[in-house]
Amino acid sequence: MSTTRTQVAVIGAGPAGLLLSWSLRAAGIDSVVIENRSLEHILGRIRAGILEQCSVEELTRLGLGDGIAEHGLTHHGIHLQFDGQRHHVDFHALIGRTVTVYGQQAVVADLVRAHREAGSEIVFEASDVSLHELTTDAPRVRYVAGGAETELTADFVVGADGFHGVSRPSIPGLTTYQRGYPYAWLGILADVAPSTDELIYCLHERGFAMHSMRSPEVSRLYLQVPNDERIENWPDARIWDELQTRLGVPGWTLHEGPITDKSITPMRSFVSARLRHGRLFLAGDAGHIVPPTGAKGLNAAIADVTLLARGLADHYAGDDGRLEAYESEALGRQWKVQQFSQWMTELLHRAPADDDSAEFQYRSQLGRLAYVTGSRHAMESLAEQYSGLPL
Ligand code: FAD
Ligand code: DHB
Q1: Is any atom of ligand 1 closer than 6 Å to the C-beta of 14?
Q2: Distance of CA 356 to the CA centre of its chain
Q3: Model confidence pLDDT, tens digit, residues 250-305
Q4: Same domain, 284 and 363
Q5: Which of 19, 35, 164 has most ligand 1 atoms within 8 Å of CB, for mutation?
Q6: pTM value?
Q7: pLDDT of amino acid 166
Q8: Which domain CATH number covers 274?
Q9: Same domain, 136 and 236
Q10: Which of 145, 199, 220, 302 has a Cα at 20 to 30 A from 84?
């Protein structure tokens, strides 16, 4: 077994791990990123699409803003559609803030390019990743890569390995808080110009639908489906028919095009009661998951990493205050994000027909949507939370 050393061992080369390693580099701190999938796999993953204003500012501050400035689409608000009518909520007019459409895939590609140019150490296709001696001041990570077993000793280990990673299960006796939802999202990418200027979030009698986008040529659309639904039941024509039914309003046309990707994503809300165990810190989906409505997952990962990078930089400068405060600050912020994501989800999805209160809930949701779109105070609250809490 070979042995090696770094200051911070980062598990996972998703947006959280790659960004943390990049921030640490900017602060003069060494790190090694260990990822169990291939580079090709992580570059191909289609996920989030919306960056909060603070996320854009943080990525730009770290020298990662060129792609966003060139290809990002600045949106001043969103459309909320219900009862057959579309209402625009103008965040910029309400509170002077915006969001940016820029795919997670592009964020990851920008990070990989920057790391490559800088010569960072990222180990791909590492198997048998395991964490050891986390409560000592010399925690270790063992893994196998290229057929060889390696033991990496570090000052700190950061678990940025997503919901299914090894880091969170390495915390003994951990309490977690979670809930599921009786529905999932069927998402498509289509080679067709978006039919809308800004995102449409729609509650229809038949369920939620959303029209998002990736570029002036590529649309991203989602449909609420039952959570045990199979993608084989959804040939392209059925997907477009359902999108036409749910999103349609008089005088507006949803343009169809070739579907290049389709998948079903389950929904869950999840928070780990702890984000620290000795010298292990959790960041991003390793520590918490939100349902996708409201687009908070990637942004929460960026927020965690921003707080953690500040804490680690201060630690190496001799001040542990912000590192000690990481867990409580990140969890405090996360619970605000959780309640917003839960609120947006319950506002916009139709309860299943076998739920006794489904009809009551639907009418109450319409009342809530009418309130939100009719009250400046409520719209400001939505705008503040959607465009992102300060970091
Ligand atoms: P991940 O992206 O999951 O990265 C974790 C990495 O760790 C992966 O590369 C994984 O391969 C690696 N790994 C796992 N196990 C191990 C191991 N044992 N050893 C080493 N490496 C390991 N969020 C938003 O903010 N806005 C949106 O619009 C949005 N839309 C979404 C739409 C969909 C369809 C989905 C699925 C998610 C969406 N999200 C959205 C959520 C967002 O994609 C996630 O929150 C984000 O990917 C979290 O980043 P992360 O780096 O923490 O975790
Ligand atoms: C997208 C995903 C979301 O969860 C959301 O709330 C808005 C947009 C997207 O993939 O474009």
Answers
A1: yes
A2: 32
A3: 999 999 999 999 999 999 999 999 999 999 999 999 999 999 999 999 999 999 99
A4: no
A5: 35
A6: 0.97
A7: 98
A8: 3.50.50.60
A9: no
A10: 220
Nearest CA to 347 among 47, 100, 78, 91? 78
Q: Give the residues of the chain that fall short of pLDDT 70.
A: none
Cα dihedral 114, 116, 119, 123 in deg (nearest 10): 120
92 within domain boundaries? no
> What does 50-94 look like in DSSP terms, one character per residue?
EEEHHHHHHHHHTT--HHHHHH-EEESEEEEEETTEEEEEEHHHH
The rounded Å distance from CA 283 to ligand 2 centre is: 21
End-to-end CA gap in the chain: 42
The answer to whether the CB of 63 falls within 8 A of the CB of 106 is no
112/32 same-domain check: yes
Ligand nearest to the CA of 105: 1
If asked whether residues 262 and 306 sit together in one domain, one would say: no
Residues 263 and 273 in one domain: no
The answer to the question of residue 88 being in a domain is no
Measured CA to CA, the distance from residue 8 to residue 281 in angstroms comes to 11
Domain count, the chain: 2
Domain that holds residue 372: 181-267+353-387
Could you tell me the sign of the dihedral formed by the alpha carbons of 11, 13, 17, 23, in that order? positive
* Whether 239 and 201 share a structural domain: yes
Query: Hey, what are 54's tokens?
Result: 């603070």
132 lines ligand 1 (CB under 6 A): no
Question: Are residues 56 and 198 both part of a single domain?
Answer: no
Catalytic residue check, 75: yes
* Same domain? 221 vs 307: no
Angle at CA of residue 291, ends 129 and 228, nearest 5°: 85
Ligand 1, atom 34, residue with closest C-alpha: 47
Say how many Å lie between the CA of residue 251 and the centre of ligand 1. Answer: 38
pLDDT score at 130: 98
Q: What is d(CA 274, CA 167) in angstroms, rounded to the nearest whole number?
A: 12
Mind listing the pLDDT tens digit for each residue in 323-356? 999 999 999 999 999 999 999 999 999 999 999 9
Domain membership of residue 90 (yes or no) is no
For residue 391, what pLDDT is reported?
87
Q: Can you tell me the distance from the alpha carbon of 185 to that of 344, in angstroms, rounded to the nearest whole number?
A: 14
Please report which ligand is nearest the Cα atom of 299.
Answer: 1
Residue 326 belongs to a domain: yes
